[in-house]
Amino acid sequence: MTTTAFKEALQHKIDTKTKPLGALGVLEQIAFKIGNIQQTLTPKLTRPTIVVFAGDHGIAKKNEVNPFPQEVTAQMVYNFVNGGAAINVFSKTNGIDLKIVDAGVNHSFDKNLDIINAKIALGTKNFENAPAMSLTECQDATIKAGNIIEHIHSKGCNTVGFGEMGIANTSSAALLMAYFTKTPVENCVGSGTGLDTEGIKRKTAILSHVYKTHNPKTPMEALSCFGGFEIVMLCGAFLKAAELKITIVVDGFIVTAALLAAKAINPEVIDYCIFAHNSQEQGHKAMLKALEATPLLSLGLRLGEGTGAALAIPLLKAAVNFLNNMASFETAGVSGAP
Fold first, then answer.
1. Distance (Å, rounded) from C-alpha 312 to C-alpha 251?
2. d(CA 262, CA 145)
3. Of 92, 157, 54, which is closest to residue 310 (Cα–Cα)?
4. Which residue, 51, 74, 280, is CA-closest to 167?
5. Which residue in the list 137, 164, 281, 305 is annotated as catalytic?
6. Which 3 state secondary structure label does DSSP give 138?
7. Considering the chain, what is the average pLDDT of its residues?
8. How far apart are CA 24 and CA 11, in angstroms?
9. Nearest to 276 by CA among 303, 246, 252, 257
């Protein structure tokens, strides 16, 4: 079957369910996209998984752009392991596997802890003074992330959502947004984990200076200058998931910043993405506009961790289930529209 013929058959199957044409709205679009990704008229979600990448940022040590101290990153990793975070609750509620990755936390975890150890270094450098990481470290992070996704896929996962944890990573995300969307830095900076108006002004001034200090020429150079290890791994994970034809559920501001980098490297990655929600972080709406993306949810979230993705995955399940299990006009003996 040709690509065009397949798409027509998939749309016909959606259109001839026992409902008015288009009556299931966005769910019909989701069903079409997942069917197209999987190249089948009977798509299914198998072992949906959220992968949370955690890493620390050198700039966080000064506490000028972040209201919480850097140590919170490691503390939250322990919280994930102990099942106490929002992402744990939402993943458990919706039957989603959860994997936590140490991409570069400034802490040495016990090797027996239930996390994936992919540590590149004990946090990045302060990008006020030098690139956050070397190009070699950046490349290593993308490779390690790809290996993680390959392993998860080998266990039967065909749907993945990404999350992150890293104090000060909204600063990295704002800089990457400015670079990839050519948006002024001041329009990319938000409150992060709770800065007040004066804090946002200070953060904006610092990040504007950082942006002018570096002059990256390629997406990988931009990631190495402005990124965090968790953000670079997110980028690598996007690229590998698309390569493996995995359906990707995109979370909020930081995850979408990593997607901007991944799209710059491989524009086709966007074909595998479903956007979970519109974050309350200032720049996220503009990011989504730049990607011509319409999110499924708008719940006022700005937590990160992959929480928006975890809340959106049940909608994906509903979409493929109606496609597979809802009767057609013909099978139900119901008269269709004239």
1. 9
2. 13
3. 92
4. 74
5. 305
6. helix
7. 95
8. 13
9. 252
Cα(39)–Cα(35) distance, rounded to whole angstroms? 6
d(CA 315, CA 319): 6
User: What pLDDT band is residue 337 in, cutting at 50, 70 and 90?
Assistant: low
* Buried/exposed 270-283: b ≥16 CB within 10 Å, e otherwise: bebbbbbbbbbbbb
Quick check: 32 and 14 in contact, CB under 8 A? Answer: yes
Does the pLDDT value for residue 58 go beyond 60? yes
pTM of the full structure: 0.95
Tell me if residue 330 is catalytic: no
Distance of CA 51 to the CA centre of its chain: 9
Q: Write the pLDDT tens digit of every residue in 112-127.
A: 999 999 999 999 999 9
**Residue 97: φ, ψ to 5°:** -70, 150
Q: Which of 150-159, 189-198, 257-266 shows the lowest mean pLDDT across its residues?
A: 189-198
Q: At what angle do helices 135-154 and 229-243 cross, to 10 degrees?
A: 50
DSSP state, residue 62: G
Query: What pLDDT is stored for residue 338 in this prediction?
Result: 55
Is there a contact between 133 and 224 (Cβ–Cβ < 8 Å)?
yes
Confidence of residue 193 (pLDDT cuts 50, 70, 90): low
| Per-residue pLDDT tens over the stretch 81-93 | 999 999 999 999 9
Residue 48: count of CB within 10 angstroms of its CB: 23
Question: In whole angstroms, what is the distance from residue 133 CA to residue 318 CA?
Answer: 42
Compute how many other C-beta atoms are within 10 angstroms of the C-beta atom of residue 1.
10
Mean pLDDT (whole number) for 5-20: 96
Question: Would you say 115 and 98 are in contact if contact means Cβ atoms under 8 Å apart?
Answer: no
Amino acid at 322: F
Torsion of CA 268, 274, 276, 280, to 10 degrees: 40
For position 336, what pLDDT does the model report?
65
How far is it between the farthest Cα atoms of the chain? 71
Cα-to-chain-centroid distance, residue 235: 9
- Please check the confidence at residue 306 and state whether its pLDDT lies above 60: yes
